[in-house]
Amino acid sequence: MSSGHRRLVVIGLDSGSPEYLFAKCRKVMPHLDRLLRSAVRSPLRTTDPPISVPAWPVMFTGVDPGSLGLYGFRHRQDHSYTKTYGPTSTAIPVPTLWQLLSDRGYRLCVIGMPVGYPPPAVNGIYISDFLTPANARDFTYPTSLADEIESKYGPYPLDVTFRAEERDQLYRDIVRMTQVRFAIAEDLYQREAWDVFAIHEIGTDRFHHAYTQYFDPTHAKYQPGNRFEHCLEEYYRVVDQGLGRILTHVDPETTVCLVSDHGSMAMAGCFCINQWLAKKGYLALGPTARPGTPLDAAPVDWSRTQLWGAGGYYARIFFNVKGREPEGIVEPAEVPALRARLIRDLSTLQTPDGSPFPVRVLDPQTAYYTVRGDPPDLMLYFGELAWRSAGTVGHSSDFLFENDTGPDDAVHATEGVFVLANRTIAREVELPTQSIIDVTPTLLSLLGEPLPGHIQGKPMVAVLDAAGLSH
Q: What is the pTM of this model?
C-alpha cells in the first residue's frame, strides 16, 4: 500500500572522487554507468575542513560546520591542552534529513550515515556508522536488529583498521566489509516499500587511504608492475556489484541520489607543525628523545607557550590566551598581532627541495555563519591539502614522507560527487560544481517538503530544473 510520499534512495560512497566515479572506474562499473546515463551529475564542493565529519552531517542537515560545532573527528574540550572528545549523533544541534522526514511520517531505513552513534530513533531502521565504539552492542535501532543481522551475516563490519603495514588481509577485509554491508542493505531494502532508503559505505575511503600508492602514478611511492597495480578496478567492481544489489530493485518512480563527502588524492607527506612552531619560538618545547612523540606526552612548558597545533588532515591552531587556557600567557588584545606574525612566518615556508610551500589560513569566526562548540582559533591547509599536519614531535625533519600516525597513502580532495536520477531525466546532464550544504534542501524540494527555517543551504536550481520540478 502506498504511503503517499515520494520515494528516495540515497547511496553515499565515502571519499568518492569525480575522477574515479565519473571517469577512470566507470568502465568497470556497469550499474553506475547505467545510472549516470539518465541522471544529472556534478562535482560536489565539500566542507571546510574536508573531512567526513563535518562533511556528512553538513550534507544531511544543510547547516555549516561552525553552526553544528563539528570541526573534525576530535575536538578540544573546555580549552584544555590535552582533553578531547569525539562527535555523537546526540550532539548535533539541528535535525538531520532523516529525523525531519521521520517526524513527517516517512518510513526510513538508514545504514551507516555519519554521525550515527548512538543510532537515532526513527520511523523505521537505523544502523550506526564507522564511529561506533568498538564492541558496542547498541549499534542498531531497534536494538534487536543487531542480533538478527549477526545471526545471518556474522559480526557486523562497522570499519577496518586501515593504517596498518599489512596489505593482503586488509584488502580482503575491505572487500568483505563492502560486500556484507550491501548484502544486508539488499535484504533490508526488500523488507518493505521504504519511503527513504539510505546507505553509507566507508570502504571506499579506507581503500584509497591504504592503496593509492599502488595504482596512482602521481604518488611518490608508485612503482609500475606492483602486485596491487590493478586493485583500483578490482575494488570498484566490488563497489558496483554492491550498487547493483540496490539499483536493480529500485522502481522507476523512485529518485536515486548518489553522493560522496569529499574526494581523495595522493598524500605528499606531513608537515610537523609543532616542531616548526617550537623553532620559531611560539611553542616552548624541551628535548624529545623519541620520534613521533604526541604533544601531550612531550616536555611542553605551557607557561612560556604562545600557541600550538594539532595534527590531522589540516592543522588546528590554538592560542594560549590568558584567562581562557589554564596557563594562558597571551593577552586577548595581543592575539591579532600574534596571528598576523604567524601568518607572515607561514608565508615563508619552503619544501625540502626549496619550492614554495603554500599554506591556506582559515578563521572559523569568519568562515561560518556562526561558531559553536570548541573550534580551533585558526585552520591551516598545507600544500593545497596534499600534506597532512603532523602534531607529533621529535622528528629529524619538519617534513615527513610517511604519516606520523600510521601508514596512509591518501588525503582528502575538496570535490566529491553528486548524482541524481529520476524518471524525468532521460539523458546524462553534467552540471558545474555544486555545494554540499545544498544537498538536503534539494532533496527536501524533490520530495515536495517545505524547508525548515534553520537550513542555511539552498535548493540546487539546475538539479530541480533537470528533474522536472519548478523552483
A: 0.97
